[in-house]
Queue: 3 jobs
Job 1
Amino acid sequence: MSQYDLVIVGAGPAGMTAAIYGVRADLKVLMLDKLAPGGQVINTNEVDNYPGKPKINGAELCMDMFQHTQSLGADFDYKTVTRVQVADDGVMKTIYFAEDEETVQAPTVIVATGTRSRTLNIPGEEQFKGSAISWCAICDGAKYRDKDVVIIGGGNSAVDEGTYLAGIVNHLTIVTDFDLTADPASCDYLRSLDNVTVYPYKAVQSFEANEDGSLKGVKFADKETGENEQVVECDGVFEYIGAVPSTEFIQDLGITESHGYVETDAHMATAVPGIYGAGDSNSKFLRQIVTATSDGATAAQEASGYIKKLRAEGKYQ
């Protein structure tokens, strides 16, 4: 069993910022993530709203953040956290992992695990998942060069990834249950492209297959009436229909709301002393890189203050 002052679960922008602030507050910091540092930002082709970094590739921005954490001396490990147990006196928290029986203890924990893609759970989705259906245009878009592609969704991710895909595919069709809801300038630009067609207020019903088992297309109809069914033939599909928080490992702590998002106060503190939330896994109004970094900085500062309080009371050394 190893011990740290601060354990950060999640290495996206919130977690990495927390690590930077934690180390600078003279805390011994461990940052954990089951995947590569960066979270969902890694899959973003172009970030254009992070101050001082106009039109930067998402993976590049994340690598800069991660290198910053490492230059300051924050520890990092690839681990899948399965449970956080709070000691009877409330001071130490024990973190358990899926990979092995090793545990880590710390008086403060920041939950910065972000979200994962939501799925439709309709006929054909399971069949084509991971082959013709993807959730990452940067990862899989190149194989659809000069082919026809469908994006499902109309939010920021759908519009941003759609703009990227439109530059390499033959034709891009966007099917969304409302309309394009990203910032107006981005939506207007995407709509203006000659090889883009948008179907708003539609409900996707199934993914259709050819006789040989390959993807034929996407079947959808009017959202309100279920009428006007049609199938748009395509070679691949990208789903961007929202996200769910990756917080199952803390569900028994009583710090999440009904949808699984972490409930915090303005200081990122949860109802459990010493446990904080930061980033997209928090219950919040705006989920952006800049708000995640703000959360991470606040949470780490609060964790530092909490540890100072414990030391002053003789409860932690």
Job 2
Amino acid sequence: MARRRLHNLIFQEADEDFIVRRPRWMKEREDHFNNLDEKDFQIRFRLSKASTLHVLQLIEHKLEFPDNKNSCISPINQLICALRFYATGCMQIAAGDSTGCSTTTAHRIVHRVSAAIAALRPQFVKFPETAPEIWKIQVGFYSIARMPAVIGAIDCGHVKLSKSPGDNGELFRNRKGYFSLNVQAICNSNLEFTDIVARWPGSTHDSHLFNNCVRRAMFEQGKYKDAVLVGDARYACRNYLITPLQVCRSPAEHLYNESQIRTRNPIEQLFGVWKRRFPCMALGLRVDLNNSFAIIIATVVLHNIARQAKEDVPMDDPNVFLPTAWAVLLR
């Protein structure tokens, strides 16, 4: 009798400890590419259908699975999931819900697609090297304010991080008080990135970032001859980097400052257009620090593809919260 009671007690405790697993539920995957018209698609995914197909052709071989087991997600749906992630303030659960996959699947897809797109950087983010390429960019800048020999406008902008990046988190707190990455960019007159450095913490000064980049070493070696960059007062004036005068004492100096500022204006516009096109760059990256670098480069590549296709910045998605004070977040 005692043995039977002990047996029942053991099995009763085992039944109480047994956890019923949630049933596996396959979400319905919508065909956004075919169901949405061009305007609605561009509002929600920040690229036109033509540019999306162009990107898909370049990275499809990296997104395909060897078979169709477990209802695997097609490359076009993976790309659309990542694009939705870039356009919704970095909420992976929202990207997953909109494309019919779980949050963990959306997490893997976003980083997989971001790495594939970031690998296209040498093809779409190119600094001019040959004489015809340099001449074309110099003509573009000269048409703005008649400043000659300008090969690019340089500046830095902050990409917000939604959480502290670990033990050395205070290194990433910028002068505005939030955690960020300080991203250095050089652009042409068409608001296209020609060079990008996205690995320095937010507390890094712009001039320190430039002094330690490869592009400065190339200018020091005289690779670009008499070509120059234009930058703001945060940079030291050099023979290949011209900055505005702090005090103007003659009409000629006032004219120089006006021309320099107008020629530098594309880089100021670029950060605003880039963050407006991909709001996750302004609202904050809610991913691990090591995963954020590929996402930044991927959005830069996509921005250049959109600019080369002459696409305007899409309208804001009404389903995404965008703060009223955009000017605070854009820079």
Job 3
Amino acid sequence: MKVVITDYQYENIDQEKKIIGDAGLKLAEYQIKDAKQLIGLIDDADAVITQYSDMNREVIEHLQHCKMIIKYGIGVNNIDVMAATEKGIYVCNVPDYGVEEVSDHAIAMIFALSKKLPIITKALRNGDWGYSSVVPLYRFSESVVGLVGLGRIPQLVAKKLKGFGVRILAYDPYVMPETAEESGVELVDFDTLCKESDYISIHCPQTGGTNHLFNKRVFQMMKKTAFIINTARGPVVCEEDLVEALESGEIAGAALDVFENEPVCADHKLLSMDQVIATPHCAWYSIEAITSLQRKTAEEVVNVLAGNAPFNCVNRMELQNKHTS
């Protein structure tokens, strides 16, 4: 059986080579993201590992006997899941490799915003000794943190924030009340979360229903002293509306690790705003996270090609329905 890696950004793929090789599988590696270049190269793959390559319908339709496509990461936006499902191909991901890192990053952003650290640092460098540049600041322990989504990462955010005395709200139409109770958060509707939160941390996937979920209407609903944090997917926030909200004072600030178009342009308006903290989609990063991601990706490939059900499959239900219909 043949495994193909379309592209990767890591220093090496020694772990994958060993795990896949020890299982008696053949491995071919490329650094190709363009869909048209992939056609012909990966057609005979039994499993495809991808990071950023364009696994669109045309590429998938050329796959002759592929059993799985797995993403180095969580989001599968670069994979046409519907096309894969129609061909009976598992679409897999690795949802837990960087949950500690992303939850820490979101919390670090919340803390930095709560003390307006970038603003006061810039003021001090410009000779302003004092706190006038960050007036007003509010006591963090008396604030409300809203979590949009209550999966693995926001559950960890809630767990880590518990010791700070904040009230934590969550909006997730798919989560069970028991999960919210175990996480120590209050389940509320979306509008309530937006109106009552001092910090809104986004942790939902990008779907048709969440695209531009945060827009002009929502920013007008939020407190003028509120902040928004996004470590999920850029398109969940309408950046044009966010810029307008920040410029008009509708909200107090933002912290973004993800953007609508990546890599973000250096002259993007959001990058020049003092009340915005921005990082280059790196919330997931640590040495341990990369090691875990590469290992778990290879182990999942071996698992599925051995005839087992995948550990993590984003189209499992669709395939089950397809097979039973």
